[in-house]
Specification:
The longest helix has 20 residues, at 174-193. This protein folds into 2 domains: 7-104, 3-Layer(bba) Sandwich (Glucose Oxidase, domain 1); 125-402, Alpha-Beta Barrel (TIM Barrel), CATH 3.20.20.60. The protein is built from 16 helices and 16 strands. It has an 8-stranded mixed sheet with strand order 1-8-7-3-4-5-6-2. An 8-stranded parallel barrel has the order 9-10-11-12-13-14-15-16, surrounded by 7 helices. By secondary structure, the protein is an alpha/beta fold. Keywords: Kinase, Magnesium, Metal-binding, Transferase.
């Protein structure tokens, strides 16, 4: 079928800094700089092709899947279309982000870019990053770069960039475990060296769901779970892994060896923790040195209601993970486009949960930061108590740093 000139409508899963993009389709898993990657779904195995792409078009997925979040952080637009339309996406295509549509064929006449966001009232900002280039991009954003107090990265993204298989390393023996920790620590050292004075880095410890783990694992046995989102990952998995404890100590030792006291600029955060009991058990299990702070992500309703108790047992800082919180409050899978209309980041129940976390943390004197999409920030600023700061993906936050006088 010849699709030239046809306009295909879709749904925008992640935006970018341009409103119109033109490029050649890449239908392979090989990285091709500046192309439009076309794939049925976004999987970890496509990492190299994704980060090389100018934009991505997929046939499935939701607003806040992990790879969609990676794209948002890098400013790579993602457009979802019906799977039946993917076959027409060959050769040259033009993406119109404002109308969430694609025209197949040679480049049409140029169209102007529009849109801006705001920095006002953002607080002590935290940038959600995918790699070192995101830190350098933020810190090259002019005089407002200092407004970004911290950078947050998932350990899984470090693994992807380094070509590491964490579960294989954990079953490979002491030498493999140590080598894994040293590789992660070494990568973090480079990140710290790129920080401005007063900035810090937060490592969200390994949170590898079984379905994602299966894509990057060759040796270790990966359980097949009927519902991986609610399965053995996050704090639950960390509690059961002695090997990860040794790997984490190798990370900390590498940081201390190469950075000295500057190693204190790297903080650790617990992913997907249920309550204060689980947090305390994990702190003990990890056998962290005295004085090493440990923060936590609030991503489930149970953690919302345990906020005060978690502060009481010594959590150093709280990060509200809106993306997971929405799906668990509303029983709407964030990666399932069939329930996209039910996945609402401004739902009153979700905002009530966030409000509870912020108020409880502030009453306890515990710093708290809330993740926000740029499109939601104005709504959150008006309808939530003020947290210590907001977390945002790199590309969206960089736009605010470069356009400080606009309002959302």
């Amino acid at each position: 079928m010849n699709g030239n000139g046809r306009r295909i409508l879709g749904s925008l899963l992640a935006g970018g800094t341009e409103s119109v993009l033109h490029g050649i389709c890449n239908r392979t898993s090989s990285p091709r700089e500046g192309t439009i990657l076309v794939a049925p779904s976004l999987e970890a195995g496509l990492y190299d092709a994704i980060v090389a792409a100018r934009a991505v078009v997929c046939g499935s997925g939701g607003l806040t899947g992990h790879m969609q979040s990676l794209c948002r952080g890098r400013g790579i637009p993602v457009l979802r279309v019906d799977e039946a339309d993917l076959a027409d996406l060959v050769g040259e295509v033009t993406l119109y982000l404002e109308s969430a549509s694609i025209v197949v064929g040679p480049k049409p006449s140029a169209e102007s870019e529009t849109g801006s966001t705001a920095l006002d009232d953002l607080g002590s900002a935290c940038a959600v990053i995918a790699d070192l280039r995101d830190i350098t991009a933020i810190n090259a954003s002019g005089p407002n770069a200092g407004r970004v107090e911290s950078f947050f990265i998932r350990e899984e993204f470090l693994c992807l960039a380094l070509g590491l298989s964490p579960l294989d390393a954990m079953v490979g023996g002491p030498a493999d475990i140590t080598a894994y920790g040293q590789a992660i620590g070494g990568r973090l050292c480079g990140f710290v060296e790129a920080l401005l004075p007063g900035q810090r880095l937060i490592l969200r410890m390994l949170d590898l769901r079984s379905d994602h783990a299966a894509d990057v694992t060759e040796i270790a046995r990966v359980a097949v779970e009927p519902n991986p989102e609610m399965g053995l990952h996050g704090a639950r998995w960390l509690l059961g892994s002695v090997a990860y404890r040794h790997a984490l100590h190798a990370v900390l030792s590498t940081l201390r060896k190469h950075l000295g006291d500057e190693a204190d600029r790297v903080g650790l955060s617990v992913p997907f923790v249920s309550d204060e009991t689980e947090f305390s058990q994990l702190r003990t299990h990890l056998d962290l040195p005295d004085g090493v702070p440990l923060s936590a992500f609030i991503e489930t309703p149970s953690a919302v209601h345990a906020t005060s108790a978690m502060c009481a047992v010594g959590v150093s800082e709280l990060f509200v993970g809106i993306k997971d919180l929405v799906q668990f409050y509303l029983a709407a899978d964030r990666g399932n486009h069939l329930v996209a209309d039910s996945y609402r980041t401004r739902h009153p129940a979700v905002l009530d949960g966030v409000r509870r976390v912020v108020e409880s943390a502030r009453a306890a004197g515990t710093p708290v930061r809330v993740f926000s999409l740029a499109s939601d920030l104005g709504h959150y600023l008006k309808n939530l108590p003020t947290p210590d700061g907001y977390m945002m993906c790199t590309a969206e936050l960089q736009q605010m740093l470069l356009q400080p006088h606009s309002r959302t």
